[in-house]
Amino acid sequence: MPTIIGVEVAKASILCCKLDGDSVPSDLGAFARSYTPVPLLSNSDGVRKLLDLGDCYIIEPTGDYSRIWVDTLKANGKTVLRVNPKRVRALKEYAGIASKSDRYDAAFLAIYGAMNQGDPSAFLSEYAEELRNLTLQHQTLSRAINAQQNRLWQLLSYEWPEACRTKSGTKPQQNREWLQASPPALWRFLAGEKVRGATQRQASLDETIGSGLSGLSVALATQVCDLERQQFPMEERIDALVSAPEFAAYQAVFDKFGFGPMTRAVLLSRIHPFSQFLEDGKPIKIRLPSAKVEGRYHRRDKSLGAFRLALGNGTRLYQSGQISEQRAAGSKLGRTALYLHVKTKIVIIGGRLAQPPRLRQHYDYYHQLGEMPHNQAVMKVASRIVKDLYRDLLATL
User: Fold this and answer.
1) Per-residue pLDDT at 326
2) CATH code at position 232
3) Residue 14 structural domain
């Protein structure tokens, strides 16, 4: 059996726990308290010592901190398995350890790896992890771009107001289309780049009633162009990942919902493989006693509950004294993607476009909610979308 190494990653160092794959400790808590950890610094000597420790390395995905170690281990032919931090935390709490320390975390990473070796569903998908990183990076750039664009419009209304409206009275294009290599022409012109129609734009600028372009506007436009060009290769990679033949069945279901490319990428990064929510290819259903009527029981679909949590549409019960409430739980990334989908495709665009069948149903459902507060209605529709998506994927895959 391979030697399992639990790797707890910090900013400038790591802490490792070495465990034989065929000897899971009988007393998990006692092992975590008594083993000898291996601390290593983030340098060449630390890398060399890490490679000599074992065969299989268990790591929590902690963004850029862990990526450098994952890439190094893979480049040297080691097996690297990423694990959901919530699962390791649950195992640690089951063992009676509530303290948060690198020592305990490294130990339970190794224990979790030894207990679940040979079960791919116990670890995060490599494909999903890459897609998740790409979507997060893309969204980070989008937030920066939006902030710069908002400030640019404010400046242009004073410096070149004629540029804020086209001849038809609409706002000029400000966002680059998906997989379009070049930023919008207005931003490129402001940045001093060559664009079609530059002569007419320059004539308008020369005759403007505004104060004329400031250095800040030029700098902001240059930043917007640079950031959007950084997004383009990310979009190419995302498109290549989600367009792979093995995801054709997912895409066929997504087509019925009218999801945009970024929404599809986020959803796939959270729910692939769909089999992770099932047991022997079937939903996991349990029988529970009713909390309202004694002697009554109801069936609960645990698979649907896990699916909803993966997309940020789940809830968790919080009780303390007289307080009892359900709070939103699950992936914030998935919850945001669904919220934006409802806002753009249903609330804003609505019935103006020819719509796929599921999208039309969700559009009609939104308008049936009547006077419900807006954000509550949006999340109500998002919840309906998640349930319909679960049923359609279950019937298709």
Assistant:
1) 74
2) 1.10.287
3) 3-124
Work out how many domains the chain is built from and give that number: 3
Structure tokens at 45: 């000597």
Q: Which two tokens stand for residue 303?
A: 């698979």
- Coil, helix or strand at residue 358: helix
pLDDT value, residue 33:
92
pLDDT (tens digit per residue) in 370-395: 889 999 999 999 999 999 999 999 99
Task: Report how far residue 96's alpha carbon sits from residue 31's, in angstroms, rounded to the nearest whole number.
Answer: 12
Question: 66 and 11 in contact (C-beta within 8 Å)?
Answer: no
Residues 281-300 pLDDT 10s: 888 888 777 666 676 777 78
174 φ/ψ angles, rounded to the nearest 5 degrees: -120, -15
**pLDDT at position 21:** 73
pTM given for the model:
0.80
**CB 69, CB 7: distance < 8 Å:** yes
Rounded to 5 degrees, what are φ and ψ at 163?
Answer: -80, -10
Residues 147, 110 share a domain? no
Report the CATH number that the domain containing residue 66 is assigned in CATH.
Answer: 3.30.420.110
Please say which residue of 69, 99, 124 terminates a domain: 124
Low-confidence residues of the chain, pLDDT below 50?
A: none
pLDDT of residue 354: 63
Cβ-based neighbour number of residue 160 at 10 Å: 22
Give residue 2's pLDDT.
84
CA distance 78 to 384: 43
Q: Which two tokens stand for residue 140?
A: 């980070």
**Token pair recorded at residue 305:** 């509950």
Residue 245, preceding peptide bond in cis (omega within 30° of 0):
no
**Residue 56 and residue 110 share a domain:** yes
User: Could you tell me if 236 and 339 lie in one domain?
Assistant: no
Residue at 30: amino acid letter = A
